[in-house]
Amino acid sequence: MSEPAGLEPGYRRLLAWYPARFRSEQGEEMLAVLMAGAQPGQRRPGLVESIDVLRSAVGMRLRSVPAGLRNREWVDALALFSVAAPLFLLVADVLEVVLPYRVPMRSRISPFLLRFVGRHPEVGGLALLRVHFFDIAVGCEVIIAVLILLGLRWLALAAIAGAVAYLAVASQWISWIPYPLQLLTATAYILTAAALLGSADPRRGRQLLTWRHGVVLLLAAAAAQAATLMYDVTSPLARIVSPRPLPDTFRYFVASVVLAVAALIVAVIVRMNRYFLLLLAVTFYPFVLQLAYPTSSSGDDLLGSPTPSHLTLLFLPPVLVAVVAVLTSIARRGVPPPSEPGQPGVA
To answer: What is the pTM of this model?
Structure first.
């Protein structure tokens, strides 16, 4: 009795995930095995066997990934980033509180408006500590950082998932927190989760973290705060109460560039892990893109009225890097470690 007509094409589509050379050598043999193992009357590949075939095929393709992406330096970068990124977010939040944007006011302003904004309005600052949503967001960052420092990878991943869900639900109520800072947090969570999944030993990140990394992260956080101040100049509050035209943003732009260049120079001087720097740069990608987007355009920003194309533009590169980080690390685990001199098999 012949097999259903749709079964063989289904298996062939699954086998197409294997490298061409492997298919030419063993494709027909694997197809015969799959067909022989099919249940009577089966019309399409089963879910379990489909997952098994795809897992094997993807693993085989990943073994051909260049060794530069599978070496110890890359895994160390993931371990280091998983520890450094949550600490970096905490520093960025502290700077947002300590160094707010103090909005200059027009000489004449209505008493009614003055009741709501006060005589010394500011974006950020100590007032953020009275905002429950901000406190909860910072509390999530503290919990995640502590769990990672303790080496509790799976609990940290669960905490990240909860924090991301909270940010997604509460985003409509936290509009007073600058959008660039929200983007920085979201991207750092994505890449931190990938680093935790991709690192074979997250505790190693704690061992690798040094004062040099602290200097670079502090300079990067300061650059982010200077750029955020530039964004705050065009915030709704500043537009309402500031004199026209709005204050010049050039000094904030210069400060952010100088601090970013200083962070890069320090990183080069101390010969910091290049893959760690790549992950840090990708973390800043949506942040920089948000700042570069014209605030006078529709929706004021990429997150003010997000569309699928906006979200794709913002998050596709970090998501792709996160996927590569996880997959290449999984592939590396399937590669036997190099033999030490004096061990069998070494000439």
So the answer is: 0.69
